[in-house]
């Protein structure tokens, strides 16, 4: 075998020192730590694909608005728990412009990133009905959401959507919902980590079943409009971002500033609650929270208890970004389409050297190129492949950590530099020769 770019003994020793017994279950932070330590000791740069962090500058429209808000003295004032009124108006308008769904401004509530949004949503949904004590994940998905449920002691069910696309999705969903214990359904679209994009028919199925079994759909739109196969960038014009909000009243849309606007550092997002759900009274919530409806429990109880509001100046930033996008003066998709271009180049290199894309299709068409994609290699397990690639200076996380039942890895394109394509080509050529 040809020598690997990183000596195996270096990686193996670091893995042992960190106490990682099964590399298939290594967390993102553990993989990152192994790569950083091995890079420092070996002097060989890693091609880092494990962290889902934006790799682009923050959108200037937001930066300028936030700076101005701070100059105007906004930092001295507590934000309203319901949110900055202009942000609420612009969030409502943005949903209309890019999803073509009407949601009232009162139901658009700023949160300290979608992470806080999901936490507060889980709390609210899990307390609506004592009989409905379980959250259903359409996986693969974002591992930290399951950790949130573990922290709050809420049960979960999960299934890998890999074998249940299209017409198969309804029966699979109903097998869980019919038990009567599901309070919420969660998925991301586009999907982290697989980058699959549920189509309108699949979302219609989810929406209709959510209505039938009275469950709330939490639609995580962290990668808003990033299905680069279609131009979703023109406000108030089709095609629109696919959404379950067209097919049920029981929806919460989680829209993040982190990826679409590269505004991750300020922890800003918005949860848009459907009008009927916002005003709905649940007996259990009313008894526990002084007769308040769902939407006000979410904001004045859950969010207030968690953080007493969302960073005031960051709300001004997001309001400006959403307004500029809806006005058509800022095409946010142009800034982020580089992720799709990187994915295309990276896939070509991996495929050329014997790898395969694990989640490779959306029904009858190839998967989009975007922020993430998934790779596997012959009969290697996820853990084997992840550890082997560490010897070649490539770091990625195993799909098993995302709720997937497939063998393979999640690759993130955000930190790839142009010069690294040649590095990856060279290293994967050695990999192929060693494992052919």
Structural features, described:
With 436 residues, this protein is an alpha/beta fold. 53% of the residues are buried. The termini are close together. It is globular, with a radius of gyration of 22 Å. Helix 3 crosses helix 12, helix 5 crosses helix 6 (143-152) and helix 14 packs parallel to helix 16. It has 16 helices and 15 strands. The strands form 4 sheets. A 7-stranded mixed β-sheet has the order 2-8-7-6-5-3-4, sandwiched between helices. Strands 9-12-15-14 form a 4-stranded antiparallel β-sheet, covered by helices on one side.
Structure class? alpha/beta
Number of helices: 16
What portion of residues belong to β-strands?
A: 5-15%
The overall strand count is 15
Tell me the overall shape.
globular
In percent, how helical is the residue content? 40-55%
Beginning-to-end CA distance, first to last residue: 11 Å
- Parts with pLDDT < 50 across at least 5 consecutive residues: none
Q: SSE layout and pairings?
A:
Blueprint: H1 8-17, H2 28-42, E1 47-48, H3 60-71, H4 85-99, E2 108-111, H5 113-125, E3 134-139, H6 143-152, E4 155-160, H7 168-177, E5 182-188, H8 200-212, E6 216-221, E7 251-256, E8 269-273, H9 275-279, H10 283-288, H11 294-307, H12 312-327, H13 332-336, H14 338-352, E9 355-357, E10 361-362, E11 365-366, E12 372-377, H15 382-391, E13 394-395, E14 397-398, E15 409-412, H16 420-435
Parallel strand pairs: 1-13, 3-4, 3-5, 5-6, 6-7
Antiparallel strand pairs: 2-8, 7-8, 9-12, 10-11, 12-15, 14-15
Helix pairs in contact: 1-2, 3-12, 4-12, 5-6, 5-11, 7-8, 14-16
């Amino acid at each position: 075998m040809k020598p690997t770019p990183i000596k195996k003994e270096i990686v193996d020793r670091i893995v042992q020192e960190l106490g990682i017994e099964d590399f298939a279950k290594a967390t993102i932070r553990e993989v990152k730590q192994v790569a950083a330590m091995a890079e420092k000791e070996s002097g060989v740069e890693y091609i880092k694909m494990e962290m889902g962090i934006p790799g682009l500058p923050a959108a200037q429209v937001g930066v300028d608005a936030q700076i101005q808000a701070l100059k105007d003295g906004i930092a001295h004032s507590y934000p309203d728990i319901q949110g900055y009124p202009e942000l609420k108006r612009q969030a409502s308008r943005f949903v209309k412009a890019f999803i073509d769904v009407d949601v009232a401004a009162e139901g658009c509530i700023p949160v300290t990133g979608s992470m806080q949004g999901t936490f507060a949503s889980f709390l609210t949904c899990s307390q609506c009905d004592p009989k409905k004590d379980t959250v259903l994940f359409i996986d693969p998905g974002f591992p930290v959401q399951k950790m949130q449920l573990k922290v709050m002691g809420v049960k979960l069910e999960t299934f890998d959507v890999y074998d249940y696309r299209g017409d198969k999705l309804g029966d699979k969903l109903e097998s869980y919902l019919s038990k009567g214990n599901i309070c919420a359904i969660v998925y991301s679209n586009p999907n982290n980590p697989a980058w699959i994009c549920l189509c309108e028919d699949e979302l219609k199925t989810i929406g209709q079943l959510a209505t039938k079994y009275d469950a709330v759909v939490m639609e995580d739109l962290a990668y808003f409009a990033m299905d680069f196969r279609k131009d979703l960038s023109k406000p108030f014009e089709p095609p629109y971002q696919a959404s379950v909000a067209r097919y049920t009243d029981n929806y919460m849309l989680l829209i993040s500033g982190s990826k679409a606007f590269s505004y991750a550092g300020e922890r800003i997002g918005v949860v848009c609650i459907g009008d009927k759900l916002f005003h709905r009274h649940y007996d259990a919530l009313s008894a526990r929270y002084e007769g308040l409806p769902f939407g006000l429990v979410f904001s004045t109880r859950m969010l207030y208890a968690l953080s007493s509001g969302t960073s005031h100046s960051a709300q001004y930033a997001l309001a400006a970004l959403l307004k500029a996008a809806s006005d058509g003066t800022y095409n946010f998709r142009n800034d982020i389409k580089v992720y799709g271009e990187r994915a295309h180049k990276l896939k070509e290199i991996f495929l050329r050297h014997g790898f395969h894309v694990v989640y490779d299709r959306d029904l009858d068409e190839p998967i989009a190129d975007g922020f993430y994609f998934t790779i596997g290699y012959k009969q290697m397990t996820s853990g084997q492949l992840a550890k082997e690639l560490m010897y070649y200076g490539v770091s990625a996380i195993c799909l098993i950590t995302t709720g997937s039942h497939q063998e393979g890895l999640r690759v993130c394109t955000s930190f790839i530099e142009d010069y690294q394509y040649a590095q990856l080509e060279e290293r994967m050529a050695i990999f192929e020769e060693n494992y052919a």
